[in-house]
């Protein structure tokens, strides 16, 4: 059962966190409005859409983006005040051990970590769909055509090639479809262009030529139009900026499997995102541990000294996250290690501080 001490610290922890992040959200919204107001006016964005489609869906995204960092700052801030008012000395003098005092901190941290995990993997992908639709229509175009000469493996032994794809007309040019059995080609379909039929969710291949190969025998057929359902969507043929923001965890996992089959170059980016979604909530626990051990000692600099150290550690954590991500995308570091290295390293720092902190 929670004791009075637990309730007191939990209330201080969560109250400081939500108060601080609420103030920052208001500031960020003001700056975002001032930056985008010209686009809103220029493109006649409705006030209702601005408020409910963009900014209401912007809040969960922003809260989660900085949740673990504001957890750290909140712990530093209110624990420094406790130490400055000699409340921690009184708690320890009453017979409560330092490890027992950490319990309400970690109860709060686990709550925030679970909240972050839920936001990242379930709620935010839903809110991002409306937010990104608004952004694409009124702020910036998030859909861009890919380079020419597109190659995909749509199923084992089946390969598709397109010289180019036009997003506006949903038409691909210089199309070919090859099916292999082992190392031998079974058939090949070529066409000048292929068009997506959105009403039937099919591709229409026009002016096509088909070659069926059976050993030394070959049969060639030609036709005006061929309707086909192949494992290829128009969205695979153009680039949607940060598309993973719209996917929940299971959708992201399935998308990665499909992209690996197709030989996509963007697989690493999505794998890093998948592992980051698991590792980031855990960072809340790590930074809470470091924050408590840093700020529970009363020092001459008071809150200012603790906040200065906290900001320094925060920037170091962000730096390690960015560096490890770069090594995963452009080096040989695995995406899982890239996501977890900062947590592992700073967890070790937290344990060292925990052993050294005065009890």
Explained architecture:
This protein has nine helices and eight strands. It is an alpha+beta fold and 359 residues long. The protein has two domains: 4-140 and 267-356, no CATH class; 145-237, SH3 type barrels (Roll). Helix 1 (4-42) crosses helix 3 (67-84), helix 3 runs parallel beside helix 7 and helix 7 runs parallel beside helix 9.
Topology, element by element:
Elements: H1 4-42, H2 47-65, H3 67-84, H4 87-93, H5 98-138, E1 143-145, E2 150-155, E3 158-166, E4 171-181, E5 184-197, E6 202-214, E7 217-228, E8 238-240, H6 249-262, H7 267-295, H8 302-330, H9 335-356
- Outline the biggest β-sheet: 6 strands, antiparallel
C-alpha Rg, in Å? 27 Å
The secondary-structure class comes to alpha+beta
How many helices? 9
Question: What count of domains describes the coordinates?
Answer: 2
Identify low-pLDDT runs: none
Through-space gap between termini: 24 Å
- On the 0-100 scale, what is the average pLDDT? 87
Largest beta sheet: strand ordering:
2-3-4-5-6-7
Number of strands: 8
Could you tell me the strand content as a percent range? 15-25%
Order of helices and strands: HHHHHEEEEEEEEHHHH
Coarse morphology: elongated
How much helicity do the residues have?
55-70%
């Amino acid at each position: 059962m929670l004791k009075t001490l637990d309730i007191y610290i939990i209330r201080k922890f969560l109250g400081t966190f939500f108060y601080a992040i609420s103030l920052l959200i208001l500031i960020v919204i003001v700056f975002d409005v001032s930056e985008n107001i010209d686009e809103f006016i220029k493109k006649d964005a409705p006030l209702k859409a601005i408020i409910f489609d963009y900014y209401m869906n912007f809040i969960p995204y922003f809260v989660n983006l900085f949740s673990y960092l504001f957890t750290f700052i909140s712990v530093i801030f209110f624990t420094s005040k406790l130490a400055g008012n000699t409340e921690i000395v009184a708690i320890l003098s009453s017979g409560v051990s330092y490890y027992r005092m950490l319990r309400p901190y970690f109860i709060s941290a686990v709550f925030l970590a679970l909240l972050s995990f839920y936001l990242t993997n379930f709620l935010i992908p839903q809110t991002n769909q409306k937010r990104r639709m608004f952004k694409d229509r009124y702020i910036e175009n998030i859909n861009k055509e890919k380079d020419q000469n597109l190659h995909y493996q749509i199923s084992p032994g089946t390969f598709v090639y397109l010289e180019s794809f036009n997003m506006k007309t949903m038409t691909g040019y210089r199309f070919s479809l090859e099916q292999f059995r082992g190392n031998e080609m079974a058939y090949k379909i070529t066409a000048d262009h292929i068009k997506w039929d959105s009403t039937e969710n099919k591709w229409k291949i026009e002016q096509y030529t088909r070659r069926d190969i059976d050993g030394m025998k070959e049969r060639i057929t030609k036709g005006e139009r061929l309707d086909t359902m192949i494992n290829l969507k128009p969205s695979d043929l153009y680039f949607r900026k940060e598309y993973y923001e719209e996917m929940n965890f299971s959708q992201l996992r399935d998308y990665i499997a499909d992209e690996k089959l197709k030989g996509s170059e963007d697989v690493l980016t999505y794998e890093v995102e998948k592992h980051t979604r698991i590792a980031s909530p855990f960072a809340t626990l790590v930074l809470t541990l470091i924050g408590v051990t840093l700020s529970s000692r009363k020092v001459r600099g008071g809150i200012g000294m603790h906040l200065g150290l906290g900001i320094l550690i925060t920037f170091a954590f962000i730096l390690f996250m960015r560096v490890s991500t770069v090594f995963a995308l452009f080096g040989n570091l695995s995406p899982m290690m890239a996501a977890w290295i900062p947590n592992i390293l700073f967890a070790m720092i937290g344990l060292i501080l925990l052993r050294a902190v005065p009890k």
